[in-house]
Automatic annotation (TrEMBL):
Name of the protein: DNA modification methylase
Sorted UniProt keywords: Methyltransferase, Transferase
Pfam families xref list: DUF4942 (PF13708)
Molecular-function annotations in GO: methyltransferase activity; nucleic acid binding
Length: 571
């Protein structure tokens, strides 16, 4: 790898977010290359032998009988004869053989995934037209040369060049993304990546997503993944996300990759992209390396961060987990068929209400399966056995929208950033009992999470406020009235009779949430809050009558915090 390649990577990284480039890519197996070349030579020898036999004297005068006997009387023999003449041309068969083995060679490494979309398009064209192609007379395209024979020296030299070029792919990918931005929209900045970008023509003439155009967005996600030090999406991973955006959330922002990127798609095939300022800065650093005189200095400066600027970032999941979740489908109960038709159908299928399963019931990779189980449990799914060693996930609500939200965003809400620690059942039960909810009381749960407290409150009279879009999907599916946003920005003009809450604790946020909630309580209302045990020694609501529960130690999973329950009424 050249010094220039290392400079491109260095210009794109912040600190140690990106390490040695060689660690990102899989090596090529010498034995596998030898095996492919041997297989190619054997198949080519068979093609040459078949062509020689069919076109030789052994078949002379005999092939016509096959054509006469197998032709369609209504269409005549001519079309079949013409097709047969082309069918057994050796040059076409060898070209197809070359294309098949070059595709296999690319799959030996991860270079196809690592390629920028522009390079991938060139390879796809070459594989599609292995005999080459003349450019149209008035086209700007160049002539496409024939695909070279799959000989060992050529294969090894080509793979080595691709492997050594992977560091350059990062710069090429960033350049390709920038060139793919719509020139018709003034929002796009000609001097570099702005925070808002627009890419057009994502839909082909048949109304489907154009994988080539979507590939540029996928390239952007790959670069961001590099900057974040995480795994990369597969080459076609973004097509399903764009499809979800334009069909299910048309004109709405979808947050991707832990908040580093947002996408908004429209029916016409135009997509708006917003990247985090840190990401835009890194992208411009790469562009500045390629075009040092074209990128203004202000685009190469790291954005200044404000103090106390809390960004609600999600926790990105591995892309292979996201892709597996994209294959979730409605679950069917598999029961052993003991009836008279058991010989024809071993299992009977019955649809399971609010059940989801992987397409084949499970995956063979234990680590991947464990990650999927964790996500499903986070959403409230209970893993349940289901015939032939498979399983499904049982929910008490329709979880399909929540799963789609995870697939679209690629992440779960980060526990630390969102301060999401589900309320244990015994603590939740004690808090609800202290609230003394009557038959006519209007109720509120701020920072509701997935409804650990709200589930015990009257659904038709409870408003949930939640900042996580994913959690809002869960709450809506459960039938709650939901306001999606930061509770602290909610107007205090709302009046409710009962508030039960488990606010975020870090950096004293519980105090701000408590005071904000108290301002929403009606005159004879009651406020119940789960707070850190240290709050018991403080006058948290001056002028209010406060009662404190016993201390609950080590009740919350993932933290050793001790809590108490506050019950407050106006004095």
């Amino acid at each position: 790898m050249s010094h220039a390649d290392h400079d491109v990577i260095a210009a794109a990284r912040d600190g140690d977010l990106i390490d040695d480039v060689s660690a990102f890519f899989a090596p090529t197996s010498t034995d596998m290359v030898d095996g492919l070349v041997a297989g190619y030579r054997q198949d080519r020898a068979r093609i040459e032998a078949a062509a020689a036999f069919i076109n030789g004297p052994e078949c002379a005068g005999v092939l016509n009988y096959f054509l006469d006997g197998n032709s369609d009387p209504d269409r005549g023999r001519t079309s079949l004869s013409s097709a047969a003449t082309q069918l057994f041309e050796q040059a076409g068969a060898v070209a197809a053989l070359n294309a098949a083995y070059w595709s296999k060679a690319l799959n030996l490494t991860d270079v196809y995934d690592a390629m920028p979309q522009e390079r991938r398009n060139q390879w796809n064209e070459q594989i599609r037209y292995p005999q080459g192609r003349k450019a149209a007379r008035h086209s700007s395209d160049k002539d496409l040369p024939p695909l070279p024979d799959f000989e060992e020296q050529t294969v090894r030299a080509t793979l080595l060049d691709l492997l050594n070029s992977r560091a350059k792919f990062l710069a090429e990918r960033v350049d390709g993304i920038f060139r793919a931005l719509s020139g018709e929209h003034v929002t796009n900045c000609p001097e570099g990546f702005g925070r808002r970008m627009i890419i057009a023509r994502l839909i082909n003439g048949y109304g489907n997503t154009d994988s080539d155009r979507v590939g540029y967005i996928n390239d952007l996600r790959k670069v961001i993944a590099k900057f974040m030090g995480r795994d990369e999406p597969g080459w076609n991973a973004t097509s399903s996300v764009v499809d979800i955006a334009r069909r299910q959330h048309r004109g709405e922002w979808l947050t991707l990759d832990g908040g580093a990127l947002r996408l908004r798609a429209y029916k016409c095939g135009t997509a708006h992209l917003e990247v985090h300022p840190d990401m835009a800065w890194r992208l411009n650093c790469v562009l500045a390396h390629l075009y040092p005189l074209a990128i203004p200095a202000q685009f190469r400066q790291r954005p200044k961060k404000k103090t106390k600027d809390f960004v609600m970032m999600g926790r990105p999941l591995p892309f292979r987990v996201v892709e597996a979740l994209g294959g979730m489908e409605e679950a069917y109960l598999l029961e052993k068929n003991t009836g008279p038709q058991a010989w024809r159908q071993e299992y009977l299928r019955t649809k399971i209400s609010h059940g989801l399963q992987l397409k084949y019931g499970r995956v063979d990779d234990k680590a991947l399966q464990a990650d999927i189980d964790r996500v499903m449990a986070y959403l409230g799914g209970v893993k349940t056995p289901n015939g032939r060693n498979g399983h499904y996930y049982a929910f008490d609500y329709d979880a399909r929208d929540a799963v789609s939200e995870v697939v679209a965003s690629g992440c779960l809400p980060d526990q630390k950033a969102h301060q999401f620690y589900p309320t244990p059942e015994n603590v939740a039960a004690a808090a609800i009992e202290a609230a003394q909810i009557g038959p006519d009381h209007a109720c509120l749960e701020p920072s509701a999470g997935t409804g650990g407290l709200a589930d015990r409150m009257p659904k038709d009279r409870t408003l949930c406020v939640e900042i996580s879009a994913l959690h809002c999907k869960v709450l809506e599916a459960k039938g709650f009235s939901v306001t999606c946003g930061d509770f602290l920005t909610m107007a205090t003009s709302l009046r409710v009779d009962r508030i039960v809450m488990n606010p975020p604790f870090s950096e004293g946020r519980w105090q701000a949430h408590l005071e904000h909630a108290a301002a929403m309580l009606s005159k004879d209302g009651r406020l119940v809050a789960i707070l850190p045990a240290s709050a018991k020694e403080k006058d948290v609501l001056p002028g209010w009558s406060c009662e404190w529960s016993r201390t609950y130690d080590n009740e919350f999973a993932g933290t050793s915090v001790s809590v108490v329950i506050l019950t407050a009424v106006r004095a």
